[in-house]
Every structure is written in structure tokens, then in C-alpha cells.
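pipeline: protein-struct stage 2 | run 1193 | Flagellin
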Amino acid sequence: MALNSVNTNSGAMVALQSLNRTNDQLNITQKRISTGLRVSDAKDDGAAFAVAQTVRADVAGLQSANEQLGYAKGIIDTTLSGLNRVSTDMSEVKGLLVKLADDAISADQRSQYEAQYTDLRNRVASTLRDASYNNRTLLTPDAAGPAGAAPTNLTSGDVVTVRNELGTTYTVAETDAATLTVAAAPADSTAAIAALGDSGDFSTVMNAINDTLNTYGSAARYLDSQVSFNKEKMDALEGGVGALVDADLAKESARLQSLQIRQQLGTQALSIANQAPQTLLSLFR
């Protein structure tokens, strides 16, 4: 190949190839710096990008699961608030039953105690009926109960919620409010004594309330634990994705300066190589 040619400039071709490689590397570095990612799309690293996208989908699923768990937690916490109030009211119910069990009280006193008892009974039923969250309740309303007909817009039934990114569900069973409903005022002291007995109405209802409190208290603790675990899992997954696709910006910054210098030198080399044929003109002077 002729070394002194105006048609073929080998030096310029070599300089141009080197400059193009430098520009390609510079574009990659600038992309990493602007996005903060070593792998921002499939062109950078198809396998790593596919893994990252799968993990990101899992994180999105966990976020949605925690939102749904929050809804279920709202229902359970509202139910527990109502049950705690009812449990407190049951202390007053027992106090009135003890008074009604005394055969020595006058008819007028018994009438007053019965009125207080009935008001308290209605209050317990109303509390159970009002323990709803977003028109949803775990305590199945008793339409025939002392507080009257159940609200028509109230939905009852088991609460089934998604608990993780795989769609696994967790179920909280409903409770029949009739088992928590206080019976009508006893007709006499004998009936009041019977209600206070181990198998009497008061003990039965009180035990049912305590059992329900324990059940929903355990469910609330489970949901809190699941939400906390999901958050920890999201942090771990995001950390793994970061290790896989995040760019080392300190390294990329140093690389950027190096490539910028190489780009300037490459441009100068190409300029010098392009001027080489001009020297051949001196041979014809």
C-alpha cells in the first residue's frame, strides 16, 4: 500500500476508529452518571436487567400487599375498640345483676335497676353494631337484637386479605354478634342469680367477649408482624437490586475525566492525520 497517498489516509482511519471507540465509551459513562445505574435497560446487560425487573415487580407486590393488610388492620382495630368498650360495659352489667339478685330491694328500686340494665344492654348492642370500618364489620349484626335492624349498607363476613407478593391470603373469621348480646333484664332475683352462675347468661356472654378479644388481638399482632416483615423484605430486595444494577459514581466520575481527555487527544490526532496529505503538495513546488 502506498504510504504517500491522497486517496488513502491510514493514519486518519486509525485515529477515527480510536475516536469512535472513545465516544462510545463516553456515551456509556455519561448514561451511567445521568441515570445512576450501571444497567438501566436490556442493552446494558440483558440478564441483569431481567433479574432486576423481576425483583422490582416483587417489591411492587409487597407494597400493594401492605396496603391491603392496612385495610384489614383497620377493620380488626375498629372491632377491637368496640369489644374493649363492651368488655368495660360488662362490668356495669354484672354490678346491676348483683343488685337485681338481691330479693330485699323494693319494687321501685328493681324497676329503676331494670331500666338501667336495659339501657346498658342496648348500649352494648349498639357498640357491637357500630364497630365497622368503611361499612365493613367482623361482627355479624343481629337484626332482631335490642338495638333494632342492622344498617342496610353494612357488609359482614370473613375478611380475606393478601399478605405477600405471591398473593397468599390470610383470613380473619367473622363473629356472630348474637353470641355477644346481653340477655334481657331478669324478671326476678332468682333469674338474676341464675344469670350470674357459671353457666348463666352473663358468664356465657363474658367468656364469648373475652374469646373474641383474644382472637382478634392475635390477628392484629399477626398483621403488624406481617407488615413489618414485608417492609424488611422490600429493603432487602431493593438492596439486592442496587448491588446488581447501580453504578459506582466515584469510579464513573474518574472514568469520565479520562475519556474526555482521550476524546480531546483523539480529535487532535485525527486533525493531524487529516493534514498529512497537505505535506505532499510541497513535492510539486
